Amino acid sequence: xxxxxxxxxxxxxxxxxxxxxxxxxxxxxxxxxxxxxxxxxxxxxxxxxxxxxxxxxxxxxxxxxxxxxxxxxxxxxxxxxxxxxxxxxxxxxxxxxxxxxxxxxxxxxxxxxxxxxxxxxxxxxxxxxxxxxxxxxxxxxxxxxxxxxxxxxxxxxxxxxxxxxxxxxxxxxxxxxxxxxxxxxxxxxxxxxxxxxxxxxxxxxxxxxxxxxxxxxxxxxxxxxxxxxxxxxxxxxxxxxxxxxxxxxxxxxxxxxxxxxxxxxxxxxxxxxxxxxxxxxxxxxxxxxxxxxxxxxxxxxxxxxxxxxxxxxxxxxxxxxxxxxxxxxxxxxxxxxxxxxxxxxxxxxxxxxxxxxxxxxxxxxxxxxxxxxxxxxxxxxxxxxxxxxxxxxxxxxxxxxxxxxxxxxxxxxxxxxxxxxxxxxx
Length: 426
Fold this sequence. Notes:
This protein has a two-stranded antiparallel sheet.
């Protein structure tokens, strides 16, 4: 008599968890609502009415656009595996060429010239990194230095003589260009403004935020918003975007499937330069109407930080750019009292962080957060405003804080910054 042996059936495995959690649209709305409630509470407690005013939000939007466009340029390049530290230099080229063409012709031609200027910087970066295999960081820094030297030299040559000089040019600035135009939603803007004036908790704050988004919005801002949506669609919803992102994840595997990795890297880095150049043109044609030496003010680097904060995705990048733009706009509108009021919000956030770290048994990090929170509270209670110098440094302080707090959840493209040579997988 034979006995049949049966092997036990394999255990059913549950669903595999995603490697990294992604922010869904409802989660983004919840985060925005929570931030607005926090700002409303700070405004009600401190009396700093300007924090959520339509003027503050409008200025923040204007400051966020060049940062966001620079970050969008970084996203295109790094999704294809090329680190683009040269965003600052490409923005400088965009400011210069945008203003140079803008004052002589029309601001829209200036916008195109700024994009082309940035694309030339992107092409140079692509030749150095993709074709010749130069270290990405070294190439980007070299482009930043070259762009600064190039624009400084040609500003003296082109803006300091002839018609340019007669129209207000100088060795450090261009003649002014015409306004690019704005759009206001009729009726809605006035209605939101009337609600804002009542200073109701949350309702007036929401009206102020929405009012800033529909009142005197530059047409180039509308273009920038469309570019964010277009970038998401191209990179995540098309076969072209899939191939491009595969070059940043595993170029050897992409090559084995017939993808021309060099071509996609070139396209991504040139588009990256064009986005940064558009951000530079925004600064010279919308924000100030002239080219000024040094007017980028490190926004290329801040855009890169916003991209990292956004985890290399357009939605998170937009949130990061908005945060940095808000901090940047505080310099323009009674920044001392507004930043002083936000110290209270920072205290609450740091206390929350300390409690979270303590719950996770990271006691050293919890103690550091608690000490900093105590110091901020003492600063808030002992003063009525903050020095102007600190207000000017607010965007950079925010950059450091955001990057340090978000570093643990980041997931960059696997082959980002790696040197790739055709056929190396064979």
